[in-house]
Amino acid sequence: MRTSAPELRPVSLTIAGSDSGGGAGIQADIKTMEARGAFATSVITSVTAQNTRGVRSAYTLLLEEIEAQYEAVVSDFDVRAVKTGMLAEAPVVERVTEWAADVDAPVVVDPVMIATSGDRLLEPAGEDAYEALIRESTLVTPNADEAAVLTDVRPVDAETAREAGEVLVDRGATAALVKGGHVEGESVRDVLVTGDDVEEFVHPRIATDATHGSGCTLSSAIAANLAQGESLKPAVERGVEFTERAVRYPLDVGAGSGSVHHLAELRERAARQPTAERVEAVVRAFVDADVGPLVPEVGMNVVGATPYAESVGETAAVEGRITRTLDGVHPNRGVRFGASSHVARFLLATRERDPSLRFAVNCRFDGEVEAALPALDGPVSEFERAEEPEDVKAEEGSTMGWGARRSFERVDGTPVAVVDRGEVGKEAIVKLLADDAETLRERTLSLLGAVAAGG
């Protein structure tokens, strides 16, 4: 018999409706809370028949059954945070308000009124009942449509979002996060209003219709963060980041638009070790083949991004790069995450155009290498630093993003190599790109062979 090894996790509670499609509601809440490190408990208020295309029917449970679920949870668990979602009818909102007033834990109120598909999820009388629940909330998280219903202020920009948030705080909420996903624009701006401050969280809008469950995911992530003792602003900021990744890498399920990926952050962490091992394998192959003729003066680096990488810290590379030695090439140190800046930033920028790209290496570029590039199995592109706009040059670290965009604009499809001809003080480089480590290895060795053969 083996000894058990129990783990202590903070308990969070979601009070919401069930989504048979799995992308929103209780299902989204539980996935998200668990992904953020909390143990998720639940009280189901309604059962909906829905999928990625819309809501077919909804049935509100008897109040007695809802109360029985709540009693069962709070009589046994030390609930550290509560999140509310679809409450459906006024009597349910009123009862949840009573619980929110009594519970010794932060309460995040997501005033679910209309599904992403446009289907109504709250009866009109329930809208009026929300005023009392808002007074008991630690945070209320309306989207633009919900904020307009609750405050008579329709958020269309940062200023009106702030005004709507201030109305909610004036009505008793400790804080309000007015979400910007339903406001048109190239960027999404979520505005956090407290009694003392206004904070904006801005990120580029993601070109996808698969946002089903994004509101549930955000409020649940914040609640899970609060359950673990985080203060409000960090809990919101990390919740926004978590949801942005969930939307960036949606799940292609169903015949509709799909669903946000509630476990994308977990999958990213799980992919780190395999990604590092693949980079290490490529480095060993380069050492064995002696890729010295391709190593630039600044050194070579092999970079691998996890499938969900959003930052340099989520890319694996050789610490100190690969350099030439008297007997071949040698990595200065081992592979670790965040070890590359230049090549990693370029790879991440190319993933904005083609998210399947995951591996890159920087190589020497001169006349011999240029003559050998046609040996590669795909289009070769380039960018000229002389064409870089002054405002891009002025922004530190932005050249790689600009260069990646230019390189994709100049060819059809995804380039397998991108030439940076450099400038004064900047060595000319060619970067090879690939979806997988084995292809990167093959492309690099193919280039090495073509150089050795004189193009």
TrEMBL record:
SUPFAM superfamilies for the chain: AraD/HMP-PK domain-like, Ribokinase-like
Domain Thiamine-phosphate synthase ThiN as annotated: residue spans: 279-443
GO terms, molecular function: ATP binding; hydroxymethylpyrimidine kinase activity; phosphomethylpyrimidine kinase activity
Keywords: ATP-binding, Kinase, Nucleotide-binding, Transferase
Enzyme class: transferase
EC number: 2.7.1.49, 2.7.4.7
Domain of life: Archaea
A single GO BP: thiamine biosynthetic process
Keyword Cell division: no
Protein name: Bifunctional hydroxymethylpyrimidine kinase/phosphomethylpyrimidine kinase
GO annotation, cellular component aspect: cytosol
Residue ranges occupied by any Pyridoxamine kinase/Phosphomethylpyrimidine kinase domain in the UniProt entry: 19-261
